[in-house]
Design brief:
2 domains, elongated, 0% strand, 116 residues, mainly alpha, 6 helices
Length: 116
């Protein structure tokens, strides 16, 4: 059943993208919301679309930096899309965990006080 729902969402997403392309040149900005909603639906369910977005985010690092900086302030579904298309997933894990645990401090060698 999940397979069918995923394909229905993907097709609805493509319909929204198509409507967005049709309405984009109009003076009233109706096309942009259609493109954003349709793109989000397609990216959420299509591994191929996720790979394409990863490629573009890897290629244009400046835009990727803006996306990465703004993502924590976005709704949960947008954050999930940003995580799915993260070109460097280790970067996110390192930032989320913070610096590595240095462990216990190294033991200092014993000082020989009889030689003085």
């Amino acid at each position: 059943m999940e397979f069918v729902i995923r394909h229905i969402r993907r097709w609805i997403g493509w319909v929204f993208v198509g409507l967005g392309c049709i309405f984009f040149p109009l003076p009233i900005p109706l096309g942009l919301p259609f493109l954003l909603i349709g793109g989000a639906l397609v990216i959420s369910d299509s591994p191929t679309a996720q790979r394409v977005v990863r490629y573009w985010r890897r290629r244009y690092k400046g835009i990727d930096g803006h996306i990465f900086r703004v993502a924590p302030h976005m709704p949960a579904f947008v954050r999930r899309l940003v995580e799915k298309t993260e070109p460097r997933p280790l970067r996110r894990a390192v930032r989320a965990k913070g610096p590595a645990d240095p462990g216990p401090p190294p033991e200092s060698p014993p000082v020989d006080r009889t030689a003085a």
